[in-house]
Prior knowledge:
This protein is an alpha/beta fold.
Amino acid sequence: xxxxxxxxxxxxxxxxxxxxxxxxxxxxxxxxxxxxxxxxxxxxxxxxxxxxxxxxxxxxxxxxxxxxxxxxxxxxxxxxxxxxxxxxxxxxxxxxxxxxxxxxxxxxxxxxxxxxxxxxxxxxxxxxxxxxxxxxxxxxxxxxxxxxxxxxxxxxxxxxxxxxxxxxxxxxxxxxxxxxxxxxxxxxxxxxxxxxxxxxxxxxxxxxxxxxxxxxxxxxxxxxxxxxxxxxxxxxxxxxxxxxxxxxxxxxxxxxxxxxxxxxxxxxxxxxxxxxxxxxxxxxxxx
Length: 287
């Protein structure tokens, strides 16, 4: 079954990037010259999503505006014989149908996903977290959607992390079906190293059955007094098959300042027109 809808939670305050995020949504901070959230939306679209549901909060109208048309800007660019830039702006507006829903109370990731229920309806959907950029030939979300289509089961994307870092992620445990695919029977949110069922962590990509919404409704607040998506997934695993797939690609944690810098350098070096200059700048600053 094709995954037609994707949910992107983007209601957080972005406090780790203050003062930049005092007036600008964290998701709009660019990697080189493309806002982080545009990278995420483009991944969802490349995976087949037609409707992208962005869960926002007060003072985040800039996200919605970015994916709209801007006739004044585009007309100005056309008149200045900058048709290429005008087309670039229009292309963003054409990406997909964006549905913005406010999360009025910051009650956790699980609650943010539940806010999307009316727009998702009774069909499988993808969830992509805006703090994680995954650079891969086949979009990570497409990899998961293909697993969902063949296995008819919810699937979370996972990556192996050092034992010392399991306390930063939701960690899965279960039985390996092949070298990359696991049948999940246990999930733990940010466990201590001794309590982790594996070293396979969920960095922020999911393709889920709509039954997850009922599981979220049944989930009580966990760590931090928030409704954790990991806890709801544990409940889902008890009711139906849940899989974990070790995706192919490089993940950048852009919610962390060093991770953000890492992603910026990596994405800049991939641009032929920027690579020589960036390489020289790196040599200059490393002298």
